[in-house]
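Structure first, sequence second, as always.
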């Protein structure tokens, strides 16, 4: 892998302080060297693009990847710019007031505000991965850590958390998050009966769509991770939004369990119909075992905007509780 070394930018105040320190050092001839070296100020991590040197516990952070927001919020990280339209009221400590500049949405990123924020570090990726090259022009210390396509999802979540732990000097906290995820998965695996079939669904715009095992957004990752038996196993055509499926086809598949992601739950737009209403009020699904036995797990309404390690840990805990009941 190629190494990408970030530039180090000294602001005027820092330059003055450094010059003064050097002057004092020059006057104090024969002064003893410090007994202990200062803590490391940079760390080299392996992000989605290779090796990169970044500052440790940077002061001016722009974070764009929503899969990192809950972690950064828990760790008390403050931001100088963030995609506020994507955050709603989920992470008030990150989106802040006027002092946090609005980086816009991934469809219309506000590059000028990101530049004006003068970041020491940019946490890019996921929805904002298409502007990676522009971000590195603003600040070479730009990392992307979101789970990569084609890689084992649980390992990717833990890799992301470990990288963030290195960067923000929170290695112990990162290890705890990873251990919590492992424990939730182990509990769900232990509680699941593989003779019971499972289907993943995604709802949006008043429509029910099919989430393919291993590929469908959010719920698709449950299948390979927990070894779930799919009631219908076909490849995804649209992993993000879900594939067309009729309620009659769902009924014909006769799933024992349903896991349902509601993409619209946080938006509350006019005409919104919840996943619960769509699934449980569908006449064609009344006799499906999952509906009859109330064996339906609805993901948290915030899941679609989060999708970080804490969201998945909670999902696996919900699966463990449901399977054990």
């Amino acid at each position: 892998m190629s190494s990408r070394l970030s530039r180090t930018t000294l602001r005027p105040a820092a330059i003055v302080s450094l010059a003064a320190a050097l002057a004092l050092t020059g006057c104090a001839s024969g002064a003893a060297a410090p007994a202990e070296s200062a803590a490391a100020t940079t760390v080299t991590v392996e992000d989605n693009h290779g090796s990169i040197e970044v500052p440790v516990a940077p002061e001016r952070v722009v974070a764009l990847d929503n899969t990192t927001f809950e972690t950064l919020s828990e760790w008390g990280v403050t931001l100088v710019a963030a995609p506020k339209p994507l955050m709603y009221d989920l992470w008030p400590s990150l989106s802040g007031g006027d002092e946090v500049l609005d980086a816009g949405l991934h469809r219309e990123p506000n590059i000028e505000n990101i530049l004006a924020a003068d970041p020491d570090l940019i946490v890019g990726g996921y929805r904002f991965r298409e502007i990676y090259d522009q971000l590195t022009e603003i600040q070479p210390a730009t990392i992307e850590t979101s789970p990569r396509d084609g890689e084992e999802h649980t390992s990717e979540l833990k890799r992301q958390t470990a990288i963030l732990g290195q960067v923000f000097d929170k290695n112990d906290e990162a290890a705890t998050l990873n251990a919590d995820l492992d424990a939730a998965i182990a509990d769900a695996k232990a509680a699941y009966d593989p003779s019971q079939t499972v289907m993943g669904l995604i709802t949006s715009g008043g429509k029910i769509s099919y989430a393919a095992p291993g590929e469908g957004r959010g719920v698709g990752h449950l299948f390979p991770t927990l070894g779930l038996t799919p009631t219908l196993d076909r490849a995804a055509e649209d992993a993000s939004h879900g594939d067309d499926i009729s309620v009659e086809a769902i009924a014909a598949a006769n799933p024992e369990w349903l896991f349902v992601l509601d993409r619209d739950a946080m938006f509350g737009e006019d005409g919104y119909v919840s996943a619960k209403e769509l699934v449980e009020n569908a006449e064609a699904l009344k006799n499906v075992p999952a509906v009859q036995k109330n064996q339906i797990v609805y993901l948290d309404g915030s899941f679609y905007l989060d999708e970080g390690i804490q969201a998945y840990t909670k999902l696996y805990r919900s699966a463990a509780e449901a399977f054990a009941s």
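Margin note: DSSP finds 14 helices and 16 strands in the chain.
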